[in-house]
Design brief:
10 helices; Rossmann fold; DNA polymerase, domain 1
Length: about 240
Amino acid sequence: MTSLHLPDLRLSDFDAITFDVYGTLIDWEPSIADFLLRWAAEHGVAADAQTLVMAFDGARARIQKERPAHLYPVVLEKCFDQICAEFGVPVNEDRRRQFAASPHTWPAFADSHDGLVRLQQSARIGALSNIDVASLETSCRILDFRFDVVVTAQRVGAYKPDWPHFDTGIGELGRLGVPRERILHVGQSLRADITPANKLGLRSAWINRPGRLLGLSGEGAAEARPDLTVSSLAELVAALTKAD
């Protein structure tokens, strides 16, 4: 995957910035890895964090293609079931329930709140998230931030990289007077965010946070072409505002 770094991408080019949430603003991956490492230790499974995270990523991608779409807690339950089957471990119902409820415990990245507040001074801020409404509401409280436009998987009955999130978000922003060419989409997942943004003609920024793996492989990820690549939201804000 080759990315483009365009120094003239400016905040003034955009009237709206839409964000993926989990992996981009909420730091979910270490929590998932820690949970699965504890589970593995309980059952004598000899697997490292990377192996377990990638097992989760593969299960998640498969389950999110199922229609009708499942609510995200059910996605997590099904992921847990598949991981148990992959490693030959019986499903523990308590652990399964805990995994399904884990979005309510995932922390924000340290730069998320300040970055979102800064960008909202100049643009409408949207969330296009593969999540359920209740989990996102908890995450908004953790972020201490309210989005101008919110599109969840629960709302549209589908999961990115399918297009309903984007179609709905683009439509809502259009009704607010924001044309497609004035939207920047920001995400950590190449598979679920950058690739579909490319196909829909949206300019995009990839926040390639160090040490994170989720969403960087699988369907379409190798073809992703972000317009700007940064390692944090703080770096994105600095790049956009410096160009202005």
